[in-house]
Amino acid sequence: VQLQASGGGLVQAAGTLRLSCAASGFRFDDYAIGWFRQAPGKEREPISCISIREGDTYYVDSVKGRFNISSDKATQTVYLQMNSLKPEDTAVYFCGARVRPPPSLLRKLWASRERYPFWGQGTQVTVSS
To answer: Which residues of 55-87 are buried (b: 16+ CB within 10 A; e: fewer)?
Structure first.
């Protein structure tokens, strides 16, 4: 399993960025892909998750209405469109993969980083005020 995150950068507040997570080495449909972020001195926190087969999506409250997660099965890529960025969104963003559990279980556990055995390297997002 390989995950390659990209798309980070420096952006002004209220700006936009689109992160990509290119996946390989596993059956894409059988997995859920989550985005997490880690700011300096803080723990890695969940942002969003998508179940590839069903297309079900989940978001943490702080990004609802601003971020959108999507997937492209043809290229095995998951995207995180980030709009209306705020300085507090500054962090290293990581994508993780886990075998897709039943939807009822994913709904409860998508935000648990311990459930993601596979991680890509992070991509830095810096939002200036």
So the answer is: eeebbbeebeeebbbebeeeebbbbbebeebee
Question: What's the pLDDT tens digit per position in 107-116?
Answer: 999 999 999 9
Rounded to whole angstroms, the Cα distance separating 41 from 28 reads: 33
Q: Are 127 and 85 in contact (CB under 8 A)?
A: yes
> Residue 25: what are its φ and ψ, rounded to 5°?
90, 5
CA distance 16 to 35: 16
pLDDT tens-digit map of 91-111:
999 999 999 999 999 999 999
Q: Is 121 helix (H, G, I), strand (E, B) or coil?
A: strand
